[in-house]
Each structure stands twice: as structure tokens, then as C-alpha cells.
Amino acid sequence: MGFEKNPLPKSLSLSIRLGIGDSKNHISQIPNLKSINMTLFDVYPLFPFELTKAEGCYVWDENGNKYLDLYGGHAVISIGHTHPHYVKSITDQLNKIGFYSNSVQIPIQKELAQKLGALTGGYEDYSLFLCNSGAEANENALKLASFHTGRKKIIAFSKSFHGRTSAVVAATDDKSIIAPVNETSNIIFVPFNDEAALEVVMNDQIAGVIVEGLQGVGGVQVPTDSFLQKIRSLCDKFGALMIMDEIQSGYGRSGKFFSHQHSNVKADIISMAKGMGNGFPIGGIIIAPHIEPKHGMLGTTFGGNHLACAAAIAVCDIIKQENLMHNAAEVGTYLMVELKKISAIKDVRGYGLMIGVELDNYADVRKKLMIDHKILTGVSGKQNTIRLLPPLNITKSEADHFLKAFAEVVN
């Protein structure tokens, strides 16, 4: 039985079905199909092509052009496109059961928690709450900090980006995406890496301090070791929770599982997404043992579903088996060393395979890399910065291909 695509007057619909009257006259009264087609809500600036195929560190457009992907769709592609183990894991799971909500036992969630804990290098005793995206992960992190402390003030930092929804967009330093309904006095902004300013505002009314392991949208800004350590000590002093947003910088991208581990600190709550599912929507937070759960305090319909967990487990397997954290550290260091030799570049920032390249004509360079050399990169426009966020399995030869093209463009 087909679906009716257009609403018809009841009398017209009935007469057509019964074959009554002049059929040509009836048909002339049917609304023009083209005039009522649904369109997409236009909020994304898009590349001028579609992608139809992907493998490893490469993608192909509809005309067969091959691109080296150093963007990964906002740092999402962690283990490479269409990795065979990843594809097989999702396919096998779909052939069993694709989804049921968190109203039944889902053992694959526990398997993910165990494999994730083993990879984190120090967070094995934490608990995992699963959701669907980075924004949702950060929302739950802030909510949990407020529940745990009974407070409602949150400290965030300049140039931060934590998501586009309710509380986390209020904690994002970009007024252009904060709607009136999102405005709140509960977020206190402090200059990034300013320890003295942080000490001034920190008190026993603060529920939590949220900071990115590496600022992404903010231009790949690196928190100093002493800054993160100061956050940790002040949270301990005033009974607040330290929340590390590792949405973009986590899952091995920095050369360690979490970027903040470069600074030898440990957070109370860590948010994850992007590379966690290699393109399959999944997010989560890991939570310190001293934060107690109770039924109903957090929840989600789709979070931690069978397919999402199968994808995330495959990512953990491949990160471990292919030693991708080591590769991220090695190739990332090589890229940064070589980029710093190019005089046109003002600054190179980051860890591992999350690299910011600051230069005056960043937009032209990015465009020429894409059009002339078929290389995709990210950008932090307000910071004049090109972002390199390739899959963690990028090879040195692929890095050399980019470096050669980049040098040609900027010189």
C-alpha cells in the first residue's frame, strides 16, 4: 500500500477513489508536487562536492577524484574509513540485534566499558555512562557535577567550545550561537591559561570546572601543565569537580588516550565522542568512583545501543591491535617538526594528530590544498588556523605528501 504524499480535499480524494466525475478535472486540482518538496534547513557551509567512497585516509567524490583526508569530518575518523574489522563488527551485530533501549540488559555495554577502561591508562576504576554525541556527553557531565555538589555555578574558559545545546552552549565562548533561551548567569568565563584569574573566581559555590584537553574550535590552543594542575588543586580545595572535555582531543588523537594525560592530572569526569565510534554516533562520560549514581539521574533512549557499542568496541580493538596511539604520537611529532620549518607559518600548536597551523592567508591555503592538491583540512577561522585531524593510522608517506603540497601552496 502506497503513502499519500499530498493532502487532498476530502471530496476530491473520495471521488478519485470511487471513480466518480471528470478525472481530468480532479487531477488538475492536485497540488504541484515540486512546489511542496521539503528542503534542508540551510545551516552548514559545505564543500562543493559529495563523497561517495572512503577507505583508510582517503575519500572519493562523485566524479572519482581522490582526496587525502586530514579532516576526518571534525576529528571523527579515528581508525580510518571503512576499516574491515569495524565494518564486520557492525554488520555482525546488525544481523543479531541492532537496537533496544536501556530497559533491558545490554551486555555489550559492559564489554565496551572493560575495553575502554583498559585503554585509558589510569581510569580503569571509573564508571561509564553512554549517550549519543559530544554535546550530550558534556550536558550530562555538567548535570552530574551539579547533582553531586548541590551547586549550579560552572567555570569555563575563553575560546572554549563544548557543544550547541542548552547548558554546554552557554559554556561555549561564542555569543553568535547562544540563543536567548540558553543565556544563564551560572557560567563564569575565565581567560584560558590564566591561573591568577581562575584563583580569583574559584570558591565554594562552584560545581565544576570544564576545560578542553586541547581547544579545537578555539584554534588548537594547548593548556599548560601548570594550568591544568591548578584547576585540579582548586577543585580539590573547594569541593568542585574537574571536567575534562576530550570530545575532540581524546581517544588516542594526542598520542595518549586523553590529551590531559600529557599534564599528569586526573579528572573527575571526562567526556568523549567523535573518534569513539569512527562515524557511528556515540558519546559518553567516564565518572570517578566517589560520584554515586542513582536510578533516573541520567538517561537516554538511544545511548549505548547494540550497534553503537559494536562500533565503539571495534575502535578500541583497532587502536590497541594497530598501536595507533604510538602512531599518532610519532607521525604527529614529525608533522609538527617539519611544519615549524616553513617560514610563512606563524605558529604550530597541538599534540599528536591534533595540530593547529596558524598563518595569515589560512583560507586561501586551505582552498588551494583542497582544489589543487585534493587534500582536505579543517579550520578555526576566528584564529586564522588550519586544523589537521587525520585518521590515527596515517602513514609517514601520507604526511610527506601533505607537507610537500603545503610547502608549494604557502611558498
UniProtKB/TrEMBL annotation:
<dbReference type="InterPro" id="IPR049704">
    <property type="entry name" value="Aminotrans_3_PPA_site"/>
</dbReference>
<dbReference type="GO" id="GO:0030170">
    <property type="term" value="F:pyridoxal phosphate binding"/>
</dbReference>
<dbReference type="InterPro" id="IPR005814">
    <property type="entry name" value="Aminotrans_3"/>
</dbReference>
<comment type="similarity">
    <text>Belongs to the class-III pyridoxal-phosphate-dependent aminotransferase family.</text>
</comment>
<keyword id="KW-0808">Transferase</keyword>
<dbReference type="InterPro" id="IPR015421">
    <property type="entry name" value="PyrdxlP-dep_Trfase_major"/>
</dbReference>
<dbReference type="InterPro" id="IPR050103">
    <property type="entry name" value="Class-III_PLP-dep_AT"/>
</dbReference>
<keyword id="KW-0032">Aminotransferase</keyword>
<keyword id="KW-0663">Pyridoxal phosphate</keyword>
<dbReference type="GO" id="GO:0008483">
    <property type="term" value="F:transaminase activity"/>
</dbReference>
<protein>
    <submittedName>
        <fullName>Ornithine/acetylornithine aminotransferase</fullName>
    </submittedName>
</protein>
<dbReference type="GO" id="GO:0042802">
    <property type="term" value="F:identical protein binding"/>
</dbReference>
<dbReference type="InterPro" id="IPR015422">
    <property type="entry name" value="PyrdxlP-dep_Trfase_small"/>
</dbReference>
<dbReference type="Pfam" id="PF00202">
    <property type="entry name" value="Aminotran_3"/>
</dbReference>
<dbReference type="InterPro" id="IPR015424">
    <property type="entry name" value="PyrdxlP-dep_Trfase"/>
</dbReference>
